[in-house]
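Encode chain A's predicted structure.
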Amino acid sequence: MLQRLTQPFLLVVLVLAACAAQAAAQTPAVTCQAVVTVSNAWVSDGTNNSYSSVNLNIVNSSPQILTVPWSLTLKSPTYGNIRQTFNLEVVSNANGTIVSDALNYWQTLAPNGGGIAVGLIVEVSDGLGMPDVVAVNNQPCTVQSAQLPPPPPPTKSKAESAFSMTTVNGQIIGVDGQPLQLWGINWFGFETGTTFLDGLWAGSDSLTLDFATIVYRLQLLGFNSVRLPFSFSDIYDKPPQSQARNCAQVSSDVVVADTTPPGTTPSRSPPQWSTPPASVPGVCNAYLPEDSTLNRFMWTVDYFASQGFYIILDNQFNLDQTATQDTQKWLNRWLDLMTQLSTKYPEATSRVICDFLNEPDFGNLRWEAQPDAGLPGMEDLYLSVMDLVYPVASNVLFLVEGAGQGNLGKNWGDGTAVDPNVISSRGLSDPNPFFSSLLQKPYLSQIIIGPHVYPPSISMAHEETEGTSLWARYSASFGYLNKQGYCTGSNVLGSPSGDCHLFPDYQDAQPMQDLIPYFLNNGAAADGLHNRLSGVFWWAWNSNSGTPPASLGLVENWSQVDWNKMQYLIALGYTPWWLQPTPTASVIGAPSSPPPSDQYSPSPQSSDASPSPTQQSPAASPSPSEQSPAAASSPAQPPPDSPSPSPSPQAALPLPPPDSPPPPPDSPPPPPPTDYPPPPMESPPPPTAFPPPPPPPPTPVLPPEAQTGAAPAASVLAPPPPPPVTFASNNNNGGSSNGAFSSSIGDVFTYKPSTGGSIESAGGVGPTTTALTTNNGVIVGADGLPVLLRGVTWPGFDTGTMLNNLKGASSVSADFSTQVQRMKSLGFNAVKLPFSFKTLLGTAPTPKYPLKCISTTAAQLQASVLPNGTLLPVTAKVPDLLAQSSNGEGECNTDIPTGTPLQEYQAIVGFLAGNGFYVVLENSFEVDRTAIDNPETWVQSWTRLVSTVTKNAVAAPRIVISPLGNPDTHGLKWQAAGGAPGLANIYMAALDALNPINPKALFFLQGKLPALNTLRAGQTALTRSPGDGFATDANLIRKYNLSDPNAFFKTLLIRPYVNQVVITPAYTAPSVYNGSLAASTGAALWQRLTSSFGYLNKEGYCVNSKSCRSFAVVLASFGSGLASATDESALDDLAAYMQPLCGLPACLAADGAHGPISSWFWNGWTPDLAGSLTSTDGLKVLKGPLDYLIGLGLNPWYLPPSAQKVKPKQATGLPPTVAVNKNFCSSQVTVTSSGVDNTTGLYLGSVMVTATNVGPVAVPTPWVLTIANVYYAGVSQAFGLTQPQYVLGGTLTGTASDYWDVLWPGATNAVSVGFIVLSRSPDALQPDKVLLNGNPCLVNAPAAAPSGGLQTLGTLRSSGVRAVAPAMAAAPAVN
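Encoded structure for chain A:
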């Protein structure tokens, strides 16, 4: 029996093989081209092997079609094992020859230019892996390299990656966990227009022309760190200039000889050049990235880090005044730079030090703001940028330079004296507020102090320039910080009190003989007030720094080392290769016990010693920094009252004023002679759509007790009236002009022209970067990614002096922190706390805490957040709080202090924020009329509240301000009427006053309900929902006599905080207002919502047909017990409007006029609300509302991170050809992890869907494929699909439109299509759902797929009909 079955099988195989052989013999000759891109794909597989990603675009340039099967051959003697392939079926891999077959029909290559993309990740033994031969059907192709890539990173040491830089007791700790002494050099160029480090145009061989060779020279001379000046305009706005030069390659012996002084007998062998970049013979710098200057800058940082260097990124303030000219742009660019750097080169980032402002004295900055001069204070600048950068790069060090203390010595970057006697006697700018704030920051241990020190010939100082007077000035200015430190009590030099923090000092120095003993803290300079400094950076490597004979460069003519300067550096402690390294330092005050046996034990070599290229550090991503003195032809001019000092060697520089330093020596000298033309002048910026915003208006000075009863004066709430600005009504679809308007609270629609502005705060913590803001109609975080607010309302302070529902015997219901943990476990990340100023700022008695209660067991806590009937995964666990409660056994509410209602409210806000919640402070207008009864008192009350809660540094960036909840109450309109102020006036007064206090806060604004109900038959209007009412269409306003918000929006557009404003309508379920389904479901509902507010996050508010601004929209209040069919139907259609998943015209909610509304606040948490999530006794959560919210993106603890979400009810109607063919789709999903996207830092994944039609009716093209996962953040590419689209909320759609994509019934064929998705989590690539034409597909178990390392391969066609058997090659006719 076995023989009978086997013989026919063998016969079929032999026949098919013979047919294939005959077809191959008849294959016509092919002419082909191969465009090859090779990039490093270093894979951490435990072997430290080097891999490359080889991506090829194979093009058929012959006139004949190339049908499958055809073969592809790649040859390189460096090839080894294959890690991964894409669109290739490998047949053999031996001796550096890889043969693969193209078998799928869609891999057929059309004649005269038909192409296909293929790729593989292959182990390479040397170089980058560029194939020597590419052949199709054994006929060589013309090979074109797309780009020379950067060199591969060197092997990383696990030990070196085990630590991050930090500081301990005034010392820097390096990546090896040992004390670090920085022996540095400045090398400028990235700020002078050359778009790379300067000097690579000098000489004739690689000794001076080749970047990597110069890095080796620096290593040999004993440098272990480099400072890279840069300008943001250079690295972001200038295209990279080619640095490739024809050059003769010198040997390593020549490089060693160049870095050895004549007549020296070395005491050790020179280190070898470990990883010279792969290059083109006879060409220097061919390996540099050419795609953008920013990428080149970061690559430079990475290369330096791979060679063991630490890197200071130095924003050269004298050439780049972005920090003062456009502070927000400066903050954003620092954030973007460090986000990209830490994402692309995380190990390199561990060696980075951020020098945010080079020599702030250049711009006449002081520690305090100077409003009259339009200059921000350095305190605000430093804290703002560090608050912004630390969350994305917590392993970098922050370098602080001083300023404003010229009377203590005319050096740039000096000026951190805090002794009040010194400050008073010399009239210095006071950094004490900065240091006091710094002591409270989480990045305190990442701070180092970086003064600059120059000799009198450069600084023009004539006093305190040598000996004891010089050393006393050093100690008073900065030296004390690594010995005495900065103290919470007295900071009198030599007599400190309180807790003190020590800061490491390093110096950016020029030769001064008396600097040596002070730096080393020996001899007469050991004054007992300072320790040895942690590093020194010479200015500069560049030969063109300064003018001979006063050149500051360490090399002459870019080739010859100046040995006199080198001997000075050796006296400071530098250790060139020919000297023995210095002994290992120890951490001051650190324990002496050895590390545990399972930890890396550092080698005896000290971090102080110069790096040995043979001992590689983790490959960090180099970020070429700041500006180079060599590029600008004339430095900025000083103030006109400069006297004429004594002549200086730098005679060409402008003369300094008496009380400020002269232009710094790292100002650019004339550009070097070169054949390359100077960079073009930057073009002026394009005009913006809206006028520039005014500076923030002055914050009202508020006494603790607010006056009440008196009519408010206009000046209290508004900036000075001149010059007034008049705004016409919005002309959306026509309309008339209303002109300017005012009310009894003053003309809040006037503003002062901008005078440069200030980021000085009006109270609370200093202004830092906005934790949340909006961008193009979406709320985004500091990383630029969307932030989806899943909120719940918790009332209590609106009607009393404590949150509702803190009652019962069990801590499940009675304890505040337990309820917070329950909210967090259910997936909420935001809480709205309504309040009344009458109770919040009153003196009514508050509950006394703590209470006695029954402490909750783990099982009881779990039961309280698991709806009845819900299956619990074995591995699920209720998450812990980030900020743990202080409750003891049998205690509740110990986290709420007994005090005034405001103190308790403040504590509650802080606890919520400390556990990761965003907190909405909402004044409940229903119970508190203060806003219209006494607007002045209302603004003052808000100011007091925001100032109070903002004092908590954790809470400040998580506060959201909702000035008025439900403004429809009490007859309020947008315009002033009947003696009452207009809603527009009230909002502008509050926002103008509160934004300067907390620039980080978002503003939630509710609208004024148009007074409309159902009109005549066949028409609907904007029916009741409190807080709804942002319609600006002039036709609607005129037709229905609506209250007009146009003047408000036009004024808002010119306010500096416009990006902090979010539109927050409310939705009321029919059961709440005893309504019917009329205008509450379907198209009538959707039309009303779009007209009222939905348009604002799509088209936005338009000044004219070309200038529109979109606003983020959050549904601020909606809820229902879902106990009635009426409510269920209405809320299902509301969900369809908020997140229209199918993306088809048939889904009527996707009207194209509004965007998704992915953030919301459910009303509410406690049983006294109509949509309560908790049971009457507060001990359980209700399944109905939770299931509904899961459909809107809520992710409770009992669902896995990428759980199946319940899809909201869709609109009626599907394509006719599918209407009778539901449940027809079966699919198999293959997911491949594809690494990290270089642009966004998001995780890439290939999601391939093979769809089959198991129904009885064909699915014609075009059909739409939808995949969804809440972690999806975008789509990079699509395969076999056109019009790929990303919908906020994690939905991707694409259309299959080719004739071969028809899905024939009965599983006759299968079509493979897919996406390269962008995900926020590497573990959330698998789609939660797959839909075809809006119908759910049955998803089979995913096919096994390799993971890791796949590079971007370009758009690829990879779909088509796969024949099930040869007999099915012909498609059946359409029924």
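Residues 181-261+291-488+500-588+605-626 form a domain with the TIM Barrel fold (CATH 3.20.20.80).
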